Amino acid sequence: SIPDACNSEDLHNSALKCGPEELPAGSAAFWEAYLKLQMEQNIIIPQKHHKRPAQASMHNFLMVCGSAHQHSLDYAEHLIEKGIHLMEMPPELSAEQKPDSADLAAWMNACLQAWEKQPRLALRIASKPIYYENSADRLKARFTEVLHLLLQQIRPEELFIEGGATASSLLNRLNWTSFTPVDELAPGVVRLKLSHDPNLFITLKPGSYSWPDFLFNP
Q1: Predicted TM-score (pTM) of this structure
Q2: What is the DSSP string of 127-195?
Q3: What architecture is domain 61-216?
Q4: Domain ranges in the chain with CATH number 3.40.980.20
């Protein structure tokens, strides 16, 4: 079996260890590395080459940081260093008491104003854990509702969503149910095209994974 891998190089090195006497087992990401190696060694002949789509635009995007994983917290500093406006939910939305619709609208309007100044925006629930009864689901629901309101006012070229539960909540709230996979930016980081709006790309990433370094390279 294949041990934990932190990056594509680890996967490649694991694939190199699989000789004709081994029966390999691993994740989908491992099998991708394994098949690439088989093709490099001409053991498997690819049937078709697909044209790689244009790289994700980093001039017009909304990034939804929905994970409390340390990777996400560390990446927040990277976003700020790159000049990306990072906004957290205000206290009235993250408190245990249920906010009213005016509170949700107020933060949405603040996000909208930030977007109008510069259409490169990252949003997150909080930089520190928040604990009270059912806090994760309640915060996610509030976050999702504000994002739903915001995406009725703006249409980014790229929507980056971090965290599987956040992605599921938001896409269901938007009633976006049909997508076409167009690229894998890194292991587990998948870029999709929204079927009813081919000008909008959505990139999904598990919270424990890292965004690829090239996203903000010139």
Answers
A1: 0.79
A2: SS---STTHHHHHHHHHHHHHHHHTTT---SEEEEESHHHHHHHHHHHT---EEEEEEEETTEEEEEET
A3: 3-Layer(aba) Sandwich (3.40)
A4: 61-216
